[in-house]
Amino acid sequence: MSVGGHIATMTTTTMTMTMTTTRGVRPTTMTTSTYRRRTRAVHRASVSSSSDGETTATGGGFDLARLARVLKKKTAMDIERVFNGTSKTREKLSAVNDVLALWRMDDFEEALEELEETLLGVDFGPEVALAATDGVRARVELGECSSGKEVREALKESIVDILNAAGDSTSIGLNETEGEPSVVLVVGVNGGGKTTTLGKLSHRFAQSGAKVMMVPGDTFRAAAAEQLATWAERTGAVMSDSPPNTKPGAVCFKAVDEACARGDVDVVLADTSGRLHNNSQLMDELVGVKKSITKRLPSAPHEVLLVLDGTTGLNMLNQARVFSKAVGVTGIILTKLDGTARGGAVVSVVNELGIPVKFVGVGEGMDDLQSFEPVSFVDALFPEEDE
Which segments in the chain show pLDDT lower than 50? Predict the structure, then answer.
């Protein structure tokens, strides 16, 4: 993905280590050639490849090899943080080990029922729990797995398949038109952590070399703009010039206009007011905010990210339905994953709405907004017994 400044294409995860997955041990280091295929020329730098395959940038001074190293380091950290952040959900799923330790082919139906109940206990939801166990059942009946260990891998693969079916979790859709910024609209209900998440997103983009503009589109909450300004200062972002007492649609329109006029902004991160998903007037206003952005920049917003509070469990499903219908959600950010044993609920959202998870929040720190990668997420929920 290329953007209107000096940042090159970026994926939210660029796997760079050998990792044990549901399909065994696989090398996940991205080769230089693969990386080049996923990147586009930066707008103020001419990119060339040397004879040894090393990707470099000339003209603008932005080093694509450095970007690759930054993402490489971040992803290695992400895997550990996601594992640590899913401890409560993983603890409840430990019952899977007990079921599989007693696995016998002559009564596997009873064992599958117990597995289904265990998934329901961490809010995977009835449809997902049934789909996952049905996937296992099919493989058992085909003779593809017979031991408890093989059943565990089949269960994990079934869940990964559900998550992968929604699309690529590891990419962020950004603007590919030269000279124009990319616009990311962040939405969600009250208390889900939108503004804090916006700040963490700014930090993540900034680490990869992007210049970020933050938009105080939450005009209802008195301290929202001040909170966002603090995040802008911490992450090196710029704040859009938004006069007080301005309607949220006008705030976002003006910010996108300002970013286009400046010419040096890569990513515009637009905050919005928290709103109850069952309040039609507030949802209509949110639709108006999106239309205001599109009016100024027809291709925008390039991502509409819905922040969901992981502690709400399956209640998040109703929120996701309404927001998706209203503004066309393109990705999910699951927050507070470290504080809940109900982390499986997000799989139900993905399964029903076909919207991929892009990030998960696993703590309060600036680096605790982590890339979501289905295999590593499921591995964190179902680690080997000796881990």
Answer: 1-68, 71-72, 387
Residues 6+ apart with CB under 8 A from 157: 22, 23, 135
The answer to whether 238 and 232 have CB atoms below 8 angstroms apart is yes
**CA–CA gap between residue 58 and residue 35 (Å, rounded):** 17
**Taking the CB of residue 236, how many other CB atoms lie within 10 A of it?**
13
Q: From residue 166, how far is each of 1, 79, 324, 371, 374 by CA, in Å?
A: 19, 21, 14, 16, 11
Which pLDDT belongs to residue 19? 36
Residue 106's contacts (CB-CB under 8 Å, 6 or more residues apart) are: none
How many C-beta atoms lie closer than 10 Å to residue 109's C-beta? 10
Candidates 92, 151, 167, 13; CA nearest to 344 is 92
Task: Rounding to the nearest 10 degrees, give the CA dihedral for residues 21, 24, 25, 26.
Answer: -80
Cis status, amide bond into 27, omega within 30 of 0: no
pLDDT value, residue 74: 55
pLDDT tens readout for residues 218-256: 888 778 888 999 999 999 999 998 777 789 999 999 999
Q: How far apart are the C-alpha atoms of 275 and 292, rounded to whole Å?
A: 18
Residue 221 is encoded by which pair of tokens? Answer: 């909450």
Q: Are strands 267-270 and 182-188 parallel, antiparallel or unpaired?
A: parallel
Confidence at residue 336, expressed as pLDDT on a 0 to 100 scale: 86
Question: In 10 A of CB 80, how many CB atoms?
Answer: 12
Q: Which DSSP letter does residue 144 get?
A: S
Secondary structure in 3-state letters for 86-113 = CHHHHHHCCHHHHHHHCCCHHHHHHHHH
All residues at 6 or more sequence positions from 330 whose CB lies less than 8 Å from its CB, including other chains: 173, 303, 304, 305, 355
